Amino acid sequence: MKDSPQDSFKINLSECRTNWDRRTKIRRGIWQCLCQPLYKLIPFRLSGLRIAILRLFGAQIGRHCNVQQRVDILMPWNLELGDYVALAHDTVLLNFAKITVGSMTVISQHTHLCTGSHDTSDPHFQLIFKPIQIEPECWIASRSFIAPGVTIGRGCVIGADSVVTKDQPSWSICAGNPCTRIKERIINQPS
Q1: Distance in angstroms (rounded) separating the CA atoms of residues 140 and 137
Q2: Global pTM value
Q3: Structural domains for the chain
Q4: How many helices (H) and strands (E) does the chain have?
Q5: Would you write out the chain's pLDDT as a tens digit for each of its 191 residues?
């Protein structure tokens, strides 16, 4: 005898809720339906205009930053960039919680920073959010994934295609899936 779907399911996605307040729902609607599509069409050389739109929606962005075309930002009001930060094309910031990127940092193309996940032990699969902190002078190489709650230490390099699920130490070169420390990052002194 075959079980009915109600008897065999332990997960009930119909009860999964984000519990956004009305203000957040309105802001997200305006951003996703009106502003984000226009923001992505701004030509490559007009990063300043993209930054102005992000600031209008509450992003805190330092001086001389470069946000390239087709950077996908879910909630600009949960974004803080230091000075001289570069976000390369096709980077995705799923910032349900705050993403902080320190000064002099490069986030390379096709990188995903995700502050949201699901509680896998909850039968309703509820969303959980944890901030991401990337300290100054880092380089996150292309196609990397940074998971919720991770801190990348100052001066750290994350190699291409890495999956970062745990904090990474300062002045280290780290890579892999899962991402681990490979060696110390040593900066040559100018002669």
Answers
A1: 10
A2: 0.89
A3: 21-184 (2.160.10.10)
A4: 4, 19
A5: 455 555 567 777 777 777 788 888 888 888 888 777 777 788 878 888 889 989 999 999 999 999 998 899 999 999 999 999 999 999 999 999 999 999 999 999 999 999 999 888 888 888 899 999 999 999 999 999 999 999 999 999 999 999 999 999 999 999 999 999 999 999 998 87
E strands within the chain?
60-61, 66-67, 72-73, 79-81, 86-87, 92-94, 99-101, 106-107, 112-114, 116-118, 127-129, 132-134, 139-140, 145-146, 151-152, 157-158, 163-164, 172-175, 180-184
**Residue closest to 160 by CA, chosen among 172, 174, 181, 171:** 174
Rounded to whole angstroms, what are the CA distances from 5 to 8, 17, 120, 160?
Answer: 5, 21, 20, 42
Q: What are 178's two structure tokens?
A: 């899962």
